[in-house]
């Protein structure tokens, strides 16, 4: 694609990066067929190519974001299916991230939208606040029909519908979980924010599994939310502050006892942490450290797949529909490892149709864009249930909540099934099986 940025504009490294990306796009339109919003809405402006044109026009003309741009960029799930499909290597993720920052800086959203976004940014990344908010959800439930009728309040209705009726006990992760037998490795495990509140059992299963295989698992003091939630809202300063905080925490841990990997059990977080090196590339105090952290970041299944695992102790033979989260398959290009591990653990892995399409969770998307998210969720649930599987497994808490809100099948994290197969307890969600 030809661009007409001036030398002055290109002196801005963010614009220069976006120009490089824009020039790679050859308008072929291959990406349209795999874009969930184009498939759902059928509007070119809700396709990757359409959004690329909108972003180009806005940046090239140094224009503040307008309502049209904001509408279509807000509808983008950041699922990155377009990046998997694109034959020209267009880095849509970095382009849309830049566009979101530009929107945040130049566009004044309606009051209700601003308030919801501020609320999400202030609550979700902080486990104690998130927990308190979920506990208070019952106060809002009587107003659910009202929230559903008023367009500006629909995100509140979505939040209430997604809030679980009960919460598991708070987990205080051990500073160090010692390896059993001979130590084969030492890793830091991200505690996460929303996941640690909604389902602490995921990281408990991860620690059991890894320590059983001789891996010491540590929690780096000071580590907190990865920043993905605010990053996707274009809140650049908050996202960079979260990244710097974690880079400091993990760098100190590397210096203290060495780390073979930084493990993540929520693929949405993994995609962002693997991008810290890029996010902080212009910060001389952090660029190198951030690149080191990104290089060490791994999804738990990526790490496990490289270990020499013994035969499982429980082979249930249950049929599992594996839902590959977008951040897993498109964001991190991890496709083979989770399936192979589940098969090795004795499960019959089923592939849902349209596996490349997002379930509609996408961070806060199912709150901010509830209509499209619901349509994508229902499509996903239909495809998952059509496999005839008894269980759904996935590697991202957002997808677990989204699919679990509509499916009759139990939804578990992949690592919970692996822990069960290698001697851990049966996941609670499977008690009835
Ligand atoms: S990230 Fe997903 S929703 Fe956004 S343009 Fe690409 S394919 Fe479409
Ligand atoms: S597939 Fe790639 S090159 Fe083709 S229109 Fe989409 S982003 Fe541009």
Description:
With 433 residues, the protein is of the alpha/beta class. It folds into four domains: 7-106, Fumarate Reductase Iron-sulfur Protein, Chain B, domain 2; 111-162, no CATH class; 176-305, Glutathione S-transferase Yfyf (Class Pi), Chain A, domain 2, CATH 1.20.1050; 319-430, Rossmann fold (3-Layer(aba) Sandwich), CATH 3.40.50. 52% of the residues lie in helices and 8% in strands. The protein has 26 helices and nine strands. The strands form two sheets. It has a five-stranded mixed beta sheet. It has a four-stranded parallel beta sheet with strand order 7-6-8-9, sandwiched between helices. Helix 25 (397-404) links the parallel strand 8 and strand 9 (411-413). Helix 2 (13-24) packs across helix 7 and helix 14 (201-212) crosses helix 26. The longest helix is centred in the middle third of the chain and has 22 residues, at 236-257. The N and C termini lie far apart (54 Å). The relative contact order is 0.10. The mean pLDDT is 96.
Which helices and strands appear, and what pairs or packs with what?
Blueprint lengths: L6 H4 L2 H12 L11 H6 L6 H13 L6 H8 L6 H5 L6 H15 L4 H13 L3 H9 L1 H4 L3 H6 L4 H9 L13 E2 L7 E5 L4 H5 L2 H12 L2 E4 L9 H4 L4 H22 L3 E4 L2 H7 L2 H4 L7 H10 E3 H6 L13 E5 L2 H6 L4 H9 L3 E3 L14 H4 L1 H16 L5 E4 L2 H8 L6 E3 H8 L12
Parallel strand pairs: 2-3, 2-4, 4-5, 6-7, 6-8, 8-9
Antiparallel strand pairs: 1-3
Structural class: alpha/beta
How much is the radius of gyration in Å? 21 Å
Distance between the termini: 54 Å
Spans where pLDDT lies below 50 across 5 or more residues:
none
Helix content: 40-55%
CATH class bucket of the largest domain: Mainly Alpha
Mean pLDDT across all amino acids: 96
Total of DSSP H or I helical runs spanning 4+ residues: 26
Bound molecules: iron/sulfur cluster
How many domains? The number is: 4
CATH topology of the largest domain: the name is Glutathione S-transferase Yfyf (Class Pi), Chain A, domain 2
Strand content: 5-15%
Physical arrangement of strands within the biggest beta sheet: 1-3-2-4-5
- How many beta-strand segments? 9
| Secondary-structure arrangement, i.e. CATH architecture of the largest domain | Up-down Bundle
